[in-house]
Amino acid sequence: METQNKVNILVDNEIAKVLPEEDKIPSEDTWYEEFLAMRIVLGSIDGTNAAIEKINKYSGGHSSVIITKDKDEAATFMEQVDSAAVYHNASTRFTDGGQMGAGAELAISTDKLHHRGPLGLKQLVTNKYYVLGEGHIRE
Fold this sequence. Notes:
Elements: E1 8-11, H1 13-16, E2 23-24, E3 39-42, H2 48-58, E4 63-66, H3 71-80, E5 85-88, E6 107-109, E7 117-119
Parallel strand pairs: 1-2, 1-3, 4-5
Antiparallel strand pairs: 6-7
């Protein structure tokens, strides 16, 4: 079903008890999909640790958000979720090259290395360090 804002909503069996008019998630594979449309999947989770596990299993690693008043719970979530950007009570729409100081966004990378998250020109090049010394050592 689509909302007045034309968002297609898919729900799991537990959420369907509250939102019975919405379409059910067709298969587990849906959780792996990246939607390039106005589409959202809603599922019920039993606690923060279960949410972290589900996100780390199915997420593409781009961005994740927790909405809570509990700062300790938010800190745990943000430390343990494997995403390039994590948010506490803020929109994931801030995950943008310009917003994050990476310049104009050219693409998105979910790789661990060399850069993960919004990509600008600065992230498409590698760094080369020139260290000049006169017998300097690190102690």
